[in-house]
UniProtKB/TrEMBL annotation:
Domain of life: Bacteria
Protein known as: Multicopper oxidase family protein
Keyword list, A-Z: Membrane, Metal-binding, Oxidoreductase, Transmembrane, Transmembrane helix
Chain ranges of the Plastocyanin-like domain: 44-160, 339-442
Biased composition, class Polar residues, residue ranges: 18-27
Region of interest (Disordered), residue spans: 1-40, 269-293
Range within the parent protein: 251 to 693 of 710
Length: 443
């Protein structure tokens, strides 16, 4: 039984970490005694959702909402989130996807905490140190629970914005997801086109979150725009672009910005069953323009303008890992199936990344399979150094979820500055379940 096996392996790693000498206990949890600046309560619960088709499906949600409520906070605040489980039988957690929180707050069942069972509670605490667009989701049987709706958006506003309020702007969060049994993709829980009013001249920020397990493709038609942030990290000096397709990795986020023109602007989703999107127009009505035939895919590797990097390809790396992704036949839950392998192994036999605090760590990802693998590292952000042998140029490209497409090779690096036990896995959560999961361990 692979489940039991996996859980044991995780527990062993966890206890290994708590005994480690170089790890100080205070860094492993969020501030526990101070009064929080902001409090949220999220209750995991079974929820009947009625779909536009008239059909009703059982979703699993936080606070009865699909997606869960947007958690908005400000940089520097101490956040407390109380998680309650009303009636999700297998238990739930909350993982703060993209937030580099202390290890004990990371929300990984079987590794950093136990799953919160029905009738139980768990309190998360962390300081919102980053800014930008993130999301949260259950990390207990996540391939099932995220599909069923246990996720929501999280936005951290920068402290500077608060001090110098600009022109009133339109700031909208849009989450791409396909609900288990929901029969089609949704944008923030809605099928079809959402229409909003936006006066010409209004600065607009759209926060695009891909909460599904395969890449999301967006097109913005009707205005040039900037890709202002990737995975919560601001792009330095982003150029104006138009007529491109944005590919957002499963688990990834893009913020795009533009100034509302006189005519309507349409954000559409291509390459998945269509007819969904956001229409902005001066009076909140209008028709969506027809979809644009194949637009080139936006390339983050050469976008924006450069700033000095904390480290680059020529750095001396303390650790150098190479991971080759492949598919192989094997047994899962007693059935012969295609398993997703890293260096020929499936979890829990996959490589373990052993590091020491302070290490500069390089990872090379090589995708020899026929599917995308959005690689997500918990607790750290990766700097993309190269793709297919070519060094990235432009603004530093920091990511927590990197889509590695079939045939691609990436070099990335990160500073090991957040002690603990962390997951590094494919965010196609089905792949993570059948093989593509690794652990990063501070020794
Ligand atoms: Cu968004 Cu380990 O997950
Ligand atoms: Cu994968």
């Amino acid at each position: 039984n692979r489940h039991a096996h996996a859980a044991n392996a995780q527990e062993q790693h966890a206890s290994g970490v708590s005994r480690g000498q170089s790890v100080s206990v205070t860094e492993l949890t969020g501030p526990r005694s101070e009064i929080p600046d902001r409090r949220f309560t999220l209750t995991a619960q079974k929820t009947q959702l009625s779909l536009p088709s008239g059909k009703s499906v059982e979703a699993w949600t936080y606070n009865g909402q699909y997606p869960g409520p947007e958690l908005r906070m400000r940089e520097g605040e101490l956040i407390e989130v109380v998680l309650e489980n009303k009636d999700i039988p297998e238990g739930v957690t909350i993982h703060w996807h993209g937030l580099n929180v202390p290890n004990a707050e990371d929300g990984v069942a079987g590794a950093t905490q136990d799953a919160v069972l029905p009738g139980e509670k768990h309190v998360y605490r962390f300081v919102a140190k980053q800014t930008g667009t993130y999301w949260y989701h259950s990390h207990q049987q996540s391939s099932v629970q995220v599909k069923k709706g246990l996720f929501g958006p999280l936005v951290i506003e920068s402290a500077n914005e608060a001090k110098s309020p600009k022109q009133p702007s339109l700031d909208l969060t849009l989450v791409h997801h396909k609900l288990n049994g929901g029969g089609g993709f949704t944008l923030s829980g809605k099928q079809g086109v959402t229409k909003e009013q936006a006066a010409p001249g209004t600065p607009v920020r759209l926060r695009l979150i891909n909460a599904d397990s395969s890449p999301a493709y967006f097109q913005l038609l009707g205005s040039p725009y900037q890709v202002a942030a990737i995975d919560g990290n601001d792009v330095h000096d982003p150029n104006l672009i138009a007529n491109q397709t944005l590919l957002i990795a499963a688990g990834g986020r893009y913020d795009i910005t533009f100034t509302m023109p006189q005519r309507p602007v349409f954000l559409s989703q291509s390459r998945s069953d269509g007819g969904r999107g956001l229409l902005l127009s001066p009076d909140g009505t209008g028709e969506a323009p027809p979809p644009h035939p194949d637009l080139p895919v936006f390339d983050p590797a050469g976008y924006g303008s450069p700033v000095p990097l904390p480290f680059d390809r020529a750095a001396r790396f303390d650790r150098d890992f190479r991971f080759v992704f492949d598919v192989q036949l094997g047994f899962y839950d007693g059935r012969l199936d295609g398993l997703w392998a890293i260096n020929g192994k499936v979890f829990p036999d996959t490589p373990m990344l052993m590091v020491q605090e302070g290490d500069l760590v390089k990872m090379t990802f090589v995708n020899r399979s026929y599917m995308d693998h959005p690689m997500h590292l918990h607790g750290h952000h990766m700097l993309v150094l190269s793709r297919n042998g070519t060094a990235t140029t432009g603004s530093p490209w920091w990511t927590d979820t990197l889509n590695v497409a079939p045939g691609e090779t990436y070099e990335v690096a990160f500073r090991a500055d957040n002690p603990g036990l962390w997951m590094d896995h494919c965010h196609n959560l089905t792949h993570a379940r059948v093989g593509m999961t690794m652990h990063l361990v501070y020794e």
